[in-house]
Each structure stands twice: as structure tokens, then as C-alpha cells.
Amino acid sequence: MTTATTLATPAMTPLPKLNVVPFVSVDDMMKLVLRVGVERFLTELAAVIEEDFRRWEMFEKCPRIPSHSEEGVIELMPTSDGTLYGFKYVNGHPKNMREGRQTVTAFGVLADVGNGYPMLLSEMTILTALRTAATSALVAKYLARPDARTMAIIGNGAQSEFQAIAFKAICGIDRLRLFDIDRDASEKCRRNLKGHGFEITICASAEEAVEGADIITTVTADKQCATILTDNMVGPGVHINAVGGDCPGKTELHRDILQRSDVFVEYPPQTRIEGEIQQMPADFPVREVWQVMAGRAPGRRSPGDITLFDSVGFAIEDFSALRYVRDKLAETGLFTELDLLADPDEPRDLYGMLLRCKAKL
């Protein structure tokens, strides 16, 4: 049962009592992002993700748990640092766009490991878009050339604006070259980014989009093996942010690009199943981005290197996003109290609680 109203927004709002759970709705999430400011939100979120990546070894880790169908996939993404437990439910259904629905929707839970009580229930459709972009730009901060200013975005759907703004806020990107097989998607992206300080060019092909690009972001939605980038399209010194390939049988890059690149991943056991490197032998060499951030592995070693972030999204990033949102609740009050936890006067008398409710009917 949900209480009737969303809490007001004073300077500091107390979090709910122990027997209720704060719920961040889509409306509250949008207000929270706008209250903080999109660029600041992405920058602060990236800092929390980096903080958790630097303590990577503290987390429980496993590949996400998928349920595949011909129409798409539904996945659970759990992790814990020993103090907090988090999971995300997320789907990926490319056909949804034809029906006027989102291709990706999600929600997440953060819980107290000590007592098992949930501490937060939140929408994660918007939050996933934000954490994906924040992670992409954070990794590029370590791997792209410091002088990178131009980014090609191939695939101008729901994730494209978030990627652009994150790369501007974190990496200083200010020139965009857009391509989508549906030009209306590119026009939508340009329209939404008006006023954000970008010089934007809409291109007629992927080949045109990558001309002069320092960073190439591929973020297409089709659930199939595709070749969005071919080897001849990628020159020395480029950083590739490969976001769209994120499940078995779905890739965006020709395997020859992988052979020429220094490839960086989140969690190899998951990426070898879902990422671009599913095309490669099981012993294909990769470096883990947490090791780069922790100073245990090199990132870009020379200006002419081709670096490639084979991004599939990992549970620790969602954990970080939920942790960041929960820390914002007291100062914004943008949540609703959910009557989610049974709280009998006597913990062993759950049935008595039911009887007392009957007496009030």
C-alpha cells in the first residue's frame, strides 16, 4: 500500500521509519535529476561508481541471470559489498519500439545485509540510462586521449543524449557527429541537446560519422550480430565506447577491430558471454577497468593506441547508482513511503497482526 502523497521538499527531509521503504518513482527520479542538474548528477554518479570500482574486490560478483525469449530478455543483476545488497530487474525488448514501448525498463532494490530489510525501491529505467552514460564517460576519462573533443554516436535512440551529456561533463566533448538509420532519431537527439553547448553534425552514414572522431560510441538496439563498425573505419588513437552489444548473439563491431585494439571490460566472465569479445577465443586478452582505476593495470599507453571499452553493464554500477540516489533522498525529499514491511508489535505474532486488522474492518 502506498501513502497518498509524495513527501514535500524541504532542505532536509527525514528518511522513512524502519517499517516503511522509500520508493523513488519515475516522476520523483526526473525531479531529482533536474533538481541536482543533469551534468552534476552524471558527474557525481560517476564519482560514486569510481569509488566502488576502486574497492571492486569487496563485492560479490556473478554474471547477470538472464531469461531469454525470441522477443527479448529479462535479467536480474545482484551484488553485495557485505554491508549493502542490491539488485536490478531489467529487460531488453527491441521490438517494443514498434509498439510504442521502451526497449529497456528497470527497477532496483537496495537492502541492509545485517537485517535483510529493503532500504530503497527505485525506478531504474531513467537511472540505468544515467549510470550507463556515467560509466562510459568515466572509463573514457582513463582511456581516451586527453585532447579528445569530437565524438561520433552511432545509434541515436534513448541512450544517446545521456552519453553526449556525460562525455561533455566528464571528458570535455563538445562536438558530436550523429548517425542513425532513422534520421528522425538523429533529429530528435540534436533537438534535445540544443542549448547544451555542442556543435552537432547529422551524418548520412556511419562511415561519415566517424570521420575526424576521437571517440566512437556505438549504441544500437537490434538483438542480433551486426557490423556497425568495420576495421577500415577505425584509425589510430581512437577510443571506442561499444555500448550496444550486451547479450549473447548481439554485437556491433567486426572482430578485426578487436584484434587491433586494447580491450577493456567490466567483469570478464559476463563480458565473454555478452560483449563484443564473445566473437573471440576464450583466452582473448582483456584488461579490467577497475584495475586501471586502482592503478593495477595500464590504460592508454600511447596516443596512437586504439582503446575499446566493451561495455555490457554490470551490477556494481547499479549498486552505485542506487547508493547515490538513496544518499540524495534526505536533502530532496523526492520519494514516497511504501508500506512494504510487516511490523507486528510482537515479531512472532504475524497472524495476530492479521486478526487485529480484521477487527478494524
Automatic annotation (TrEMBL):
<dbReference type="InterPro" id="IPR036291">
    <property type="entry name" value="NAD(P)-bd_dom_sf"/>
</dbReference>
<dbReference type="GO" id="GO:0008473">
    <property type="term" value="F:ornithine cyclodeaminase activity"/>
</dbReference>
<dbReference type="InterPro" id="IPR003462">
    <property type="entry name" value="ODC_Mu_crystall"/>
</dbReference>
<dbReference type="InterPro" id="IPR023401">
    <property type="entry name" value="ODC_N"/>
</dbReference>
<protein>
    <submittedName>
        <fullName>Ornithine cyclodeaminase</fullName>
        <ecNumber>4.3.1.12</ecNumber>
    </submittedName>
</protein>
<comment type="similarity">
    <text>Belongs to the ornithine cyclodeaminase/mu-crystallin family.</text>
</comment>
<keyword id="KW-0520">NAD</keyword>
<dbReference type="Pfam" id="PF02423">
    <property type="entry name" value="OCD_Mu_crystall"/>
</dbReference>
<keyword id="KW-0456">Lyase</keyword>
